[in-house]
Amino acid sequence: MTVEIRKPILVAGVGLTFALWLWNSLHHSLAEIGEWATLGTIALGGGFWWYKQNQSDQQISELLLQPLQPEDIEKALAEVNQIVSSIETEAPTLDIVNLKQKINQLPEHLKRQELQFVVTGSKNVGKTSLKQILENQANEQKIDWVETKALLSDAELLEEEVREIALAADLVFFVVASDLTESQWQILQQLVKSRQRVLLVFNKQDQYALEERIYIQQQIQQRVAKIIPSTDLFAIAAVPNPIKVRQQQEDGSTKEWLETQPPEINDLVDRLTTILNEEKEQLIASTTWREAIQLKQQAKEILNQIRRDRSLPIIEQYQWIAAATAFANPVAALDLLATAAVNTQMLVDLSGIYQQKFSLSQAQNAAGILGKLMVQLGLVELSTNAIAGLLKTNAWTYVAGSAVQGVSAAYLTRIAGLSVIEYLQEQEINLEDTNGINLEKLTNKLQQVFQQNQRTAFLQNFVKQTVNRLSGELSPSA
After folding, report:
1. What is the spatial distance between Cα 49 and Cα 260, in angstroms, rounded to a whole number?
2. pLDDT, tens digit, for every residue of 109-154?
């Protein structure tokens, strides 16, 4: 196997590895220094990437409750157009006419007059009755009223469909008939995070005793205080239980009947009237913004696929370079140093594809963090043990010894590359700050990619493919 190396980082890093090996052959005591250098290389610069970690359980900021400004919509439109421009530059033959048409229609959506309101909630919370009453109350307004199917059903596809309908609306009436469950709370947070205007409605309050009713209202209010203002919380009875009426007749007999009660929704209707009079333009603007964000995500998925197709051959190129370098290097302690050099150059190339060009120092830091994470998560030991076990089935490769290092280096380089592109494709294009990395997110991507590539069938095929390449190193023609 012949590999042509033209990258200066790669040449310097691999050259340093073999220089250390040569020096080590004269002074065995330097093996310990080599190991120390390896650990130092992995840790180098790690602190620069740590300072901007995001907490895993972030609460929704009250800033999300602030109304969208015109510049927010302009920014979203500019971002989606920027991604489309990148697609046209990087894949000029790709047909994205439909996507561009939807994007071009967004400014017109800001001028529409008809609103769409959605009534949603779990089963048996009174969605249908509430929708009918509100529809009659606001019959003079241009409103398309939609009732979704029940949330929290067993069908995941249905659940996603309901959420999409809710996010596409201008206003959502989220109906509950008791205190919020954890699942309802999660859905409610997702809607508010997407800057959806929500009126939270506690229906069927008449079915509870006064003390219970007050307690449930307080529990709901405390739970949602940071994401929904108290002015958008309502306790109602859309269809109150009928009252038994008893009337004494002239003949001394008693007549009884059930008397239907009017809906107890006055506060909700008043709030709806205020919103229609004062916030119509804001509702439409927020919906248009969400449409822009959704189209941006669609465009980004297209662009990410284009860039992934360009990145995979690069990852394969460097995994074979890493395999050849580790296979030819008899000092196991220096394998990781060589792999770090390979990974550094690979990260520079991959970051360029994703328009987040890493400098040399940034690539070194990222490669060091990846190496450190692999050690901390036990991925190096797990992969090496698995590969060694598979190589035992081939007498030549197992006796060769260095084949284990070669295959492991190729495998870990591939895992590093795939993790980085998974990470980069979720980042914004042209990040304002390229000096930081979300360590938590990178760790999650590394774990996910490792698990996806730990399947026995994949490993067996990968080992076989790598062995076939390494075998060429000892063939006469190599």
Report:
1. 66
2. 999 999 999 999 999 999 999 999 999 888 778 999 999 988 877 6
Where b means 16+ CB within 10 Å and e means fewer, 74-85 reads eebbebbbebbe
Contact (CB, 8 A) for 228 and 200: yes
**String of DSSP letters for 382-396:** HHHHHHHHHHTTSHH
Pairing of strands 143-147, 198-202: unpaired
Dig out the tokens for 202 from the structure.
């506690």
How far apart CA 110 and CA 283 sit, in angstroms, is 10
Cβ(14)–Cβ(322) under 8 Å?
no
End-to-end CA distance of the chain: give it in Å, rounded. Answer: 6
Burial grade of 256 (CB within 10 A; 0-12, 13-18, 19 or more): exposed
Structure tokens at 461: 């095929």
Does this model's pTM top 0.70? My answer is: yes
Tokens (6 digits) for 157:
């596809």
pLDDT of residue 324: 82
**What residue spans define the domains of the chain?**
8-56+295-474, 113-194+198-278
What pLDDT is attached to residue 287?
Answer: 95
**Structure tokens belonging to residue 326:** 């580790």
Higher pLDDT, 100 or 161: 100
Nearest one of 442, 452, 450 to 421, comparing CA atoms = 442
Contact (Cβ atoms closer than 8 angstroms) between residue 14 and residue 337: no
- pLDDT band at residue 6 under the 50/70/90 scheme: low
* Average pLDDT, integer, range 290-308: 94
Distance between CA 407 and CA 478 in Å, rounded?
Answer: 18
pLDDT digits (tens, 9 = 90+) for 347-395: 889 988 988 888 888 888 888 888 888 877 777 777 777 777 766 665 5
Strand 243-248 to 254-259 pairing: antiparallel
Of residues 1 and 259, more confidence is placed in 259
- DSSP character string of 131-182: HHHHHHHTTTS-EEEEEPPPSS-S-HHHHHHHHHHHHHSSEEEEEESSSPPH
Is 160 exposed, middle or buried, given 0-12, 13-18 or 19+ CB atoms closer than 10 A?
Answer: exposed
Q: Is the pLDDT of residue 238 over 80?
A: yes
382: nearest Cα among 336, 318, 451, 468: 451
pLDDT value of residue 400: 52
The single-letter code of the amino acid at 94 is L
- Number of other residues whose CB lies within 10 A of the CB of residue 234: 23
For domain 113-194+198-278, which CATH number applies: 3.40.50.300, 3.30.460.80, 3.10.490.10, 1.10.10.10?
A: 3.40.50.300
